[in-house]
Amino acid sequence: MEPIEDPVLRQRLSFSRTTDEDGTEVLHIDTWIDPGGGVTPHIHPAMEERFEVLAGTCSFLSGRNWVTAGPGETVVVPPGTRHAYRNKSDGEVHMVCHARPPSTLQEFLEDTVRLSRSGGLSRQAIPTSPHALLEGVVMAHEYRDMVTLLFPPFPPPAIQRLIIPPLARFGARRGIRAGHIGERA
What we know:
The protein is of the alpha+beta class. The protein has helices spanning about 105-115, 130-140, 155-175; strands spanning about 5, 10-20, 25-35, 40-45, 50-55, 60, 65-70, 75, 85, 95-100, 150.
């Protein structure tokens, strides 16, 4: 698959899937991160991610601690752990994320790329307009079982559970749908 490019998070992603010996599906995300690129803090309630660094040096947040990993090293993020990653170096990072079980991670990442490419996110991954904010809310609601977003403008998770559902319904009435993020209604 040809990689998709996220100009805001400054990374390119390519997806493939396999099945472990025990029958568990695994999503493999080949990721190339430009200097300054990466993702903001979030939690996957039921998904483990294993980040295998192939080239370059990447910084990973796991819980409250940042660790640096280089070629041949793997960082494991258990389900329910707050995490993020950043390329703080001057060179490109190439890594593969192995996500078990993958749930809707690929669809979420594809929606995020479309939102970025449409101009809906600033360099700090903050929505650039009320419409883009509604798109983010619809995404947060659609993928809520797979990911909890932990960066501004999203409030703490307990507050998200109260305010995101009605805002997502409002966004849906305006024609915003997961899988079509970044498209104007």
